[in-house]
Structure formats: structure tokens, C-alpha cells
Specification:
By secondary structure, this protein is an alpha+beta fold. The protein has one domain. It is 32% helix and 30% strand. The protein is built from 4 helices and 6 strands, in the order H-H-H-E-H-E-E-E-E-E. Helix 1 packs antiparallel against helix 2. It starts with a helix and ends in a 20-residue tail after the last strand.
Length: 141
């Protein structure tokens, strides 16, 4: 368990500091996802923080409907990590999220077989954002 805690601590540091987000992704898959002890530690969860983020990724980055389905997520509370898979408009998504840092990574395998990696941060706002009217540019109605 100590070795896993050290790996997770290292991963979390790299998640926040890495200039190349491929680096923490590779660490997660190479050192953790292939570790049967790590994989057996997770307890099924609804991924209530992550699923809406995946939906937003679909809408904002890929200009799609953003329908998130088939969510299968696991939380390891003792390590402060949630990980899992889902589908975003039918595309496979893998994710992991550091609960204590509110930072996560997701990969989306696109229809053209490319893989996109997105690093995201979850912020709790004190007040909900209010939509404000946009000025009428150039007098266009």
C-alpha cells in the first residue's frame, strides 16, 4: 500500500505541474491501471463530479451533444482517486480524477481514431455564474 500511496502522490504532483499532459496519463496507465492491487481497491461510484465534466467536454471542445452514457467509475477513498470509463456521444472516454486536488484527466477516442487528452479542474463557485447580456456588435439585430 505504501508503494501505491507514493505512486499516487507522484502522479498527483505531475498532474498539476506537467507541461505535457501525456506524462501523467502514461504514468496512470503504466503504473496503476496495470496493477491488480490498485484495480481491486476501487468501490463503484456514480462519478457525480466527473460525468458532468465529460458532458461539458463534448459540448465545448467537440461541438457535440455531450451525451455521457455507460459510466463505470470507481473511487479509492484512501488514495483520493476516482477513475473509470464512459461513452461521450458513443466515443470511449477514460478518466481519472484526484479528489483532493479537484484535478483530472480524460481521454476521448475520436471517430477518426485519434485520442485527445483533456486536463480539467473542478471549481466550486460561491455564487452561480449569471448570464449577462452581450452588447449588440455593430448594430446587428
Amino acid at each position: 500500500m505504501t508503494n501505491l500511496k507514493e505512486k499516487i502522490a507522484s502522479l498527483k504532483k505531475i498532474m498539476v505541474t506537467a507541461n505535457d499532459i501525456q506524462e501523467p496519463w502514461n504514468i496512470f496507465f503504466d503504473q496503476l491501471a496495470n496493477d491488480p492491487v490498485f484495480m481491486s481497491m476501487g468501490k463503484k461510484t456514480k462519478a457525480s463530479k466527473v460525468a458532468p465534466i465529460i458532458t461539458t467536454i463534448g459540448k465545448k471542445f467537440f461541438h457535440q451533444e455531450g451525451r455521457t452514457t455507460n459510466v463505470m467509475a470507481f473511487v479509492i477513498q484512501s488514495l483520493g482517486l476516482t477513475h473509470g470509463t464512459c461513452q461521450l456521444d458513443g466515443q470511449l472516454v477514460c478518466f481519472f480524477y484526484a479528489d483532493d486536488l479537484n484535478v483530472g484527466l480524460a481521454t476521448v477516442i475520436r471517430p477518426d481514431k485519434t485520442t485527445k487528452i483533456i486536463r480539467f479542474t473542478v471549481l466550486k463557485l460561491k455564487k452561480p455564474l449569471q448570464a449577462s447580456p452581450m452588447p449588440n456588435p455593430g448594430g446587428i439585430h
